Amino acid sequence: MARANKAAPILDPLDAMLTRLKLTGVRDQLDNLLDEAGRANLSARETLALLCQREIERKDHRRIEMALKLAHFPVVKDLASFDYEAQPSVDPRQIRDLAAGRWIANGENLMLLGPPGVGKTHLAIALGREAILAGYSVQFVTATTLVASLAKAHAEKRLDDRLLGLAKPKLLIVDELGYLPLEPDAAHLFFQLVSRRYERGAMLITSNRNISEWGTVFGDAVVATAILDRLLHHSHVITIRGDSYRLRAKRRSGLLQKAPAQETTNEATT
Ligand code: ADP
Ligand code: MG
After folding, report:
1. Which of 9, 41, 119, 155 would you label with 187, given CA atoms 20 to 30 Å apart?
2. For residue 4, is it within any domain?
């Protein structure tokens, strides 16, 4: 069958040059931008600066949108919506400092520990988001999904590829380590991941278990020690105490009794 005779669009030479230079933001908005510059009586130099500024804004916006997609955050959370008054055991200054991302540049680790509902996942996502805004690549995964994917890759003899993939993001967030104890094989696979990233890429780990309980989490004291040795070498540990934020509103309205003053983290509840 004869192909439809589609005429190639006639390109304005300026359009073509902007396309070749990948200045697609300027290309698509050129008339509006030139009008804007005209209305503001900008000089040629100022006009060029305006065009560059808009192109950069658009590229940054796109990069951030793409990086947020690639990070696979389960929900949208940010630091602005974190209520520090509800969580006095979290130091706002420390969180702001971490949000600047130096620890990520240095390949350090951050552990967010505490009982369910105190905002560990919220802070992990919010800090991940800040990292993306600062230009770092981020990947979020739950411990269960991570370990299952490592085990699958191992069974299919492509563990190296999988580890290589997981070593790429500048920040790897592993959420909910310890909700379920790991099989010894899984603990060993996790160890391989931690070794691969050690001093190269930052990890943010959330857990409802104290570090002293990680031997139980990993089901093997030797592997747990080896993992902790690497994770804690250059690390920041934040232990969040207190009541579940989820149950706060209910408790306030009198639907629930006030929780005991010291919640323990021994119970693995979700
Ligand atoms: P965890 O991961 O520690 O179990 P989450 O981060 O999932 O807890 O928090 C449970 C819910 O409560 C989420 O919707 C979260 O956004 C909210 N939340 C927890 N702590 C705070 C807080 N201090 N300020 C605002 N929202 C909070
Ligand atoms: Mg959580």
Report:
1. 119
2. no
